[in-house]
Write the structure tokens for this entry.
Amino acid sequence: MKKLGILLSGRGSNFEAIADNVAAGKINAEIAAVISNRADAPGLERARQRGLPALCLPSKGLEREAYDRQVVAALKERQVDLVCLAGFMRLLSSYFIREFPNRILNIHPALLPAFLGLEAQHQAWEYGVKVSGCTVHFVDEHLDHGPIIVQTSVPVMNDDTPETLAARILKEEHRIYSEAINLVLNDCIRIEGRRVILK
């Protein structure tokens, strides 16, 4: 059975959605590691409550690659096949990317390439777009940049606030992340340049 490694820095709601789908048999994999760079991340405690192997590797004061070497070692020790970023608030080094080529996924709460970085939902709302959404993509060395696996749109309502828009986008994040994980685990896609093609 394929093994997932989840990296998170905060509440871990996307991690929980993935864990629910693993438990329900909707993702044919096991979660072999949940790793956070922050000891106070609620997602770590939720992983422990589920009986999953949860590990804090503090990143404070460490250079990016030095930290990434610790994380990669922990993932490899647990024989992780696919790494899923679930609100992991760190850019990965070239070293990390090389160790897991086309085996690191991220979810972003906007329709990439629009609204990169933090608070994408607020950026979209402030810009006045009529449609926003979320994107699951492969991770490369650049911020929110790798080839796109799945996207879905979410309409922006006239009475939306950044918070209500974020909540509706999050619901879709929970759905499409697991969809993307299955596409990758089941070898349903191929990558041509920046394009991810369904086989």
